[in-house]
Amino acid sequence: MIKITFPDGTQKPFIEGVSVMDVAKSISEGLARNILSAKFNEKVVESSTKLSTDGAIIFFTWNEKEGKDAFWHSSAHVLAEAIMSLYPKTKLTIGPSIENGFYYDADFGEIKLSENNLQELESKFIELARKKSEFKMRTSLKSDALDYYNKIDNEFKVEIINDLNDDDITFCDHSDFTDLCRGGHIPHTGLIKAVKLTSLAGAYWRGDETRKQLTRIYGISFPKQKQLTEYLELVEEAKKRDHRKIGKKLELFTFSQKVGAGLPLWLPKGAALRDRLENFLKKAQKKAGYQQVISPHIGNKDLYMTSGHFQKYGSDSFQPIETPADGESFLLKPMNCPHHCEIFKAKPWSYKELPVRYAEFGTVYRYEQSGELHGLTRVRSFTQDDAHIFCKPDQLNQEFKNVIELVLYVFNSLGFNNYEAQVSLRDKNKPEKYIGSDENWELAESAIIEATKEKNLNYKVEYGEAAFYGPKLDFMVKDALGRKWQLGTIQVDYNLPERFELTYKGGDNELYRPVMIHRAPFGSLERFVAILLEHSEGNLPIWLAPEQAIVLCVSEKHEKYAKKVLNYLENNEIRASLDSRNETIGKKIRQAELNKIPFMLIIGEKEFKSNSVSIRKHKQGDVGSKSTEDLISMIKDEVDSSISNFNV
Ligand SMILES: [Zn+2]
Ligand SMILES: [Zn+2]
C-alpha cells in the first residue's frame, strides 16, 4: 500500500500502482470528470500515471492556471495533428501553451497559409478532438527518436533532440499521431469542446532572424462552447477599449520612432492629466506624512553596485554612460530606491524621528526588448509614484496599514472597486533563498498579515512568492471586462538598509538598522493611465477628465455670448472649450460625445435671450437649461462628488 496526502492534509491508503485518475475517482466522480491536470510531489503527472510511492497530490481543473496550461498544451497537440492531416508535408517544430491559449510553429514548405485556411483547420481540429483520444506518454531511445525524425526529414526536431542531454526521449501519442513532448496533458481530447484559431504570424526558428521563417498559428480552446463565445465578445470589447486608440482620439500621448520605441511623449492634454493624478496623490501623501524629494535621472554605477542592481540586472539593461574626461560610468536610473537611501544617509537619525517617508514621482528607465513593447503598458521609460518609508521594526504594522489605506483610497477614487490582495511570504523550507534574520522575517510577515486582516482585505497567501529581501503585498484590480491587472505593491525590505548601512540611534544610544518599505499605489503613471483608459473606455471621472465641458453654438450669431460663457467657466476653474466650427449643432454634439466630454452646453437664440445655457450630458442626453450661475454650481458639485478626500 502507498499513502497519498491531499491538499487539506488528509491521508488515504491506495494500492501501489494506482493511477492518478483512480485517486481522483476515489474522491468523487465529479472531480474525476473535471480534472485536467495533477501534480504528485510537486511534479506534473498525467492522469494515467501510476503511483508507486507515498506522496502529496494536487488536482487542477479549469479554474486553476495549471489546469488551463494542460488544456492548451494538449490543444497544441491536436492542432499539430490537424495540420498534419490537412498538410502532410509540413514539418512541425514547437507548440507551447501561452497565457491565453497556445500556438504551433511549423514549416509549411511551399504552401502559404492565409486566414481563410484557419476555418478548415478548426473544423479538422474539432473532428479530431471528438474522437476522445487519450494522451499517452512513451519513452524512446535518443537514437530511435533521431532516426524517426531523420526519416521524416524534420531537421527542426532533430536539432531539438540533439540539444537534449537526456538519454531517453519522451513522446506523446494520441490517436495515431505522435509528437516530441515532456508531458502534462488532459486525460483525453474529447474535453476540448471549442476552438478558435485566432491568427497567423511569421516566426523565426528559435527566434533567430538569420534562420528559417516559420508560420505560427495562434489559437485558444475551451471546455464549453459558451466560454468561447464569451471570450470572443470580450476580445471585441477589449479592441474598442484599447488605450492606444483612446489615447490617440483624446490626444493624450504619442510615440515617435525618431525619439525611440517605448519612449512615450505626453501631449498637452495627457500631461495635464498626469499632473492631476500626481497632485491628487501628492495631496493625500502630504496628509499621510510623506515628504517629496527629487533625484536625478542617472546615478553612478557604484551606487547600483552597492544596491546590487547592477550585478543582478546590469547585462540586460541600458549600458553605462561613460564620461569623456573622468573615466566614470553612470547608469540610467532603473529604480529610485538607491537614491532615496542616500538621501536618508544625508543626516544622522534618532529613533524619535522615525518613520521617515520620502516620495518622488521618479522616472526610471528599463530596457525592454522591442518585441515586448506595447503602448503605455510596456515602455522603456516610465514614472513611478514611488515612496520609501524608513521605520523601526515595531512600526511596520502601523505603517503597513497606513499604506494599505492610501492604496485603497487611490483605487476607490478612480473607480476600481474590485480588487484582490496577495500576501507573498517566504518558503520556510528554503532559508538559503532569503536574507535577513528569522526573527525579522517573523516580525515582517506577521506585520503584513495582521495589517491585511485588520483592513478586512480579501486576500490569499502565497508561500515562496516573497522577494529575497522581504515579504510583500500585491494588489490585483479587475477591470470592467473582468481582466486582472497587477497595480500597487507594498514591499518590506531588509536588504537595502543593510547594503547602504543605514542606521538610527535607539533610546539606549546604540545604532540600529531601520526597515524599509517600498510602495507605489499606481505602479507607474504610464501603465496606470493605460489601465484606467481601458477600464473606463475613456470616460474618466469628471475630476480627472481632460475636458469637463464644451460650449456649442447653434449659429455664428451667438459666438460672442458663447465666448462669455466659456470665459465664465474658465474663471471658475472648469476645463472647457468652444466648438465654433461652421457645422450643424447635430454634428458638434456627435463630436463632443465621441470626445467623451461630460457636459455639452448648447447656445441658441432662446438661451442667448434668457442668459442661460441648454445642458446635455454625455451618454445621458438633455437635462434642461440653467442660468450660467446655476450651471457652474451644478458642474462643481459633480466634480466634488466624484472625488473624496483622503482622511488620516
Ligand atoms: Zn505534450
Ligand atoms: Zn523602491
Count of distinct strands: 35
Q: Helix share of residues?
A: 25-40%
Taking the sheet with the most strands, its summary is: 8 strands, mixed
Spatial order of the strands in the main sheet? 18-22-23-30-27-26-24-25
What is the rounded Rg?
A: 30 Å
Q: Helix count?
A: 20
What does this structure look like?
The chain is an alpha+beta fold. The protein is 35% helix and 27% strand. It contains 20 helices and 35 strands. It is globular, with a radius of gyration of 30 Å. The model has no long low-confidence stretch (mean pLDDT 93).
Topology:
Blueprint (H helix, E strand, L loop, with lengths): L1 E4 L5 E4 L3 E2 H8 L1 H6 L2 E4 L2 E3 L4 E2 L3 E6 L4 H22 L4 E2 L4 E2 L2 E7 L7 H15 L6 E6 H10 L3 H9 L4 E7 L2 E4 L13 E11 L8 E10 L2 H16 L2 H7 L3 E2 L10 E2 L1 H20 L3 E2 L5 E3 H7 L1 H5 L7 E2 L6 E4 L4 H8 L11 E10 L15 E11 L4 H18 L5 E7 L12 H17 L4 E5 L8 E7 L5 E10 L1 H5 L4 E2 L5 E2 L2 E6 L4 H12 L12 E5 L5 H13 L4 E4 L5 H10 L4 E5 L1 H6 L1 E6 L3 E7 H14 L7
Parallel strand pairs: 1-7, 18-22, 24-25, 31-32, 31-33
Antiparallel strand pairs: 1-2, 3-6, 4-5, 4-7, 8-10, 9-10, 10-15, 11-12, 12-13, 14-15, 16-17, 19-21, 20-21, 22-23, 23-30, 24-26, 26-27, 27-30, 28-29, 33-34, 34-35
The protein binds zinc ion (ZN) (2 copies).
What descriptors fit this protein?
648 residues; 20 helices; alpha+beta; five-stranded mixed sheet; 35 strands; binds zinc ion
Task: Please give a quick description of this structure.
This protein is an alpha+beta fold and 648 residues long. The chain has 20 helices and 35 strands.
